What we know:
By secondary structure, the protein is α/β, with parallel strands linked by helices. Helix content is 34%, strand content 18%. It has a single domain (47-53, 128-197, 204-474), classed as Alpha/Beta hydrolase fold, catalytic domain (Rossmann fold, 3-Layer(aba) Sandwich). A hairpin with a 2-residue loop joins strand 6 (112-117) and strand 7.
Amino acid sequence: MFKFIQPFALIALLAVLSACSSSIKEPALELTYNQKAAQQTPYRNPVIVIPGILGSKLKDIRDDQVVWGAFVSGAADPQKDEGLKRITAPYIYPDGSLTNWSHVEPNGALEEIKLQLLGIPLKIKAYAQIIEALSIGGYREKQIGDANDEIYDDTHYTAFQFDYDWRLSNAENSKRLFRFIQSVREHTARIYETRYGIEDADVKVDIVAHSMGGLLTRFMLRYGEQGLPEDGSAPILDWSGSLGVERVILIGTPNAGSVHALTELVNGKNFGWPFLPFYNQGVLGSFASLYQLLPRDRHNTVVDMENRPLGSLYDIKTWERYQWGLLDPKMDKTFARLFPEIESAEERRRIAHHTLKTHLEEARRFTEAIDIPAAPPERLLFDLVLGDVDPTMRTVAFDAEKRKFITLSEMPGDGTVVRYSALMDEREDGNLSVWTPKLRSPIAFDNVMILPYDHIGLTQSKVFINNMLYWLLVEPRPSGTPLGYPLKP
Length: 489
């Protein structure tokens, strides 16, 4: 119909629409939470912010070389041999030992990404909005405080960022998260005793986790410090990790996985080559965590060109049949760069095969462990924030002849995570005999907030921020007391 509108009429219409959109007001968070922010009392839980995959900076401890967190001159470049080894996670030899080239450790949360495009330095904010929002609520973040001793005067830290090597298994990182939470609780308890005379405080923390950070959080809550047992058995679901946690806010978490994880493991990830690095299958295929983002077989996300199931995404035979990821013959050159000391191409491929098989098996065990239907303890609050206005890849077909994926269907999501995955909606398994109009999920959410934003935009929305601060600061807790334990005089 718009083709019949005269130019001046169209301009007038756009002006009206612009005026309408500009009339939408944003919440005045500084005014809403000013009084609460001014209260320097222990009547709030410390908050731990957990980023998703790619969300923590990585550095090489030998020379402080930036490995991830900046695409500027001097950062690790996977197109160069030394940079390739720095960013690639250790491979696994058939005897179970690891390659010894990795000297990489996490180096703080990634608040912004530094880019250099055509010689022009750029900055893209990642998690800075969440940290800024917490400061509006009066939280004092440790990473900022350590960088500027005078910024918080005499107040103590009440917000912490959990940085981790996101290339490694979420089950392994969950053990580190468990220990990090205990250290925050113990540190805060000492502060409460010194400042407020509260002895032996059973401090609880709240968690705000984005994307994959929500998966390792969920595993930690269920299994504490167990990880995945080395004997191949299942961990014991005892909710031992929840004992020190009172509220969890998940943002855009792919609870049922994402098709993007498969396509990137198979094809690599192009961040804008030739101006930005290209991370091929040999790099991404070394990341154990990425396999743990694979969609579930039962949700029927990947088929062949005849619309038939390809086989389990967690079965090495499927990857062998289609020569996916680390089994792509094109990776021989990358393996030669990673293993120059090994002359045999067959031996290098054997190492890659064992690495792939190990990661797939661990991913299968990890997803089975977090998919078990189990309601969390009543004292633990579970909130979910998701986006559902961007068409997001739901099902793909693999063209074996052309070796590429073709998108068959899209569903509402945040551009990365489809809505059903965030909800872990098991109605997507196609089992009509148990279909119900109500959500069927192994996760019991206390609150679900659906917003019109993309995967990163969710963290930047003032609507989300307003509700996050309400959940953290205002909404009554099941414990019935501000701290979750009785205050001593």
